[in-house]
Amino acid sequence: MDKLTNNLFDQKVVMSMDEATCHIEPPAYFTRLATRLEPTADIVKKTLKSRDRVVHLLYLKSVVDMMQLQEIVVKPFYEMSAEQNFAEYIQSLPYETKMPTGDEEVLIEITKGNVFVMINKQITLLELKLVAANAVQEAIMEPTIHGPQLGLSESIETNINLMRQRYHKPSLIIEPMQLEDASNRDIALIYDGERVKPQLLKIIRKRILTLEVELVQGSSDLQYYMNNKKYSLFPTSLLTERPDRILHNMAVGKVIILVDGSPHAIIAPTTFFDFILSMEDAYYSFWVVSLIRFLRYAGLFTCIMLPSIYVGVTSYTPEVLRTELALTVAASRIGVPYPSFIEVFFMLIFIELLTEASMRLPNSISATATTVGGLILGTAAVEAALTSNIMVIVVSLVAISTFVIPISEMNYAVRVCRFLLLLYTTAFGLAGMVLGMLGLLLYLVNKDSFSEPYLRMFWKNRQEELKADDS
What we know:
By secondary structure, this protein is α+β, with helices and mostly antiparallel strands.
């Protein structure tokens, strides 16, 4: 009877100890962090208990990989016998993130997918984030026939892995940073430490750290804010999605900026001639590349100057043309009720509308809709004597030449310059066109990209050039 009573007493003591363990209050620091996150619905506060061992976990289930959490933290906790062994195990994991100092920084790390682990007074952050957009995407902005066909990913870790797989040098440096905006996005500066200029790194770091913006949603936003001039027409950095272009620029001493959540990288600094370069040029012979680049520059000058030349010649100085050609142009404009500059503005705006429509429509119908719309409206405009046949040829050639430029950012700048040059020509004739081109050239000569000349002809990592830069 006494033995039975003692057993019942022991069972009651064990039950009381278990109940006390179930109601263990978490530490004040843990409670304070959890209170800051409690308004959200995906917060998880979990306490792991095994005999006299207690571990507190705090994380957001929407950004944490539950399978990793189960295999790396929960399962080993119940398989290990001593508390000290589990604490040492957590400290030895390669997933550990550097512990910030303030509460706000710790909460930011938790929102990024880190698990807050507290064992007695030992605090650890484990990076067990769930990455849903780590697939490498197809290159859409810069398609090529030869060379890599896949671009970057929306995961910054995946993009860094792509760089490491293709650039096997110990001088490759990954410098992590964090934006001080509402998103607190992770960014990374990637460069070759043996080739990059220290002054360039200093300028880029300063511009990133001094940004005063509410929200940066991707590389395009960061590129705009880093431009440092609100009304700058020409881009001073290049946005790309191709790993081969990134490696090509990194090898000559430029800096690559990756933004977490964006499938594009920023290349800084850049020159005007970088925007005319296609990565496919590296796969052809010298003569083929020379011909292709000549066509690109010819297309560049055509799309900028051809409308202005048409207006200047037809309205101001038709005598510069051969007599037969001047009579042909004059005959084509018979019945057009307004001057040539209004005709050119009308047709250029019409082409810009078709271009924007082709970009905004779904891929399945954009080509058909814009082609049919252009043919029907162009033919109808000529038959209604709203424009001439030669004007349709001029505008079509301008539209084709515009898309010879490989990089879309320079494409937009050239389209704006075309209208500005047309205004000069409308006011002052061919002399105005020459004056406008001279002003554009002076603007580009005085422009710089992160303290590098914007019209720098060559960017080679030669010793002579480096000595000249340092002197």
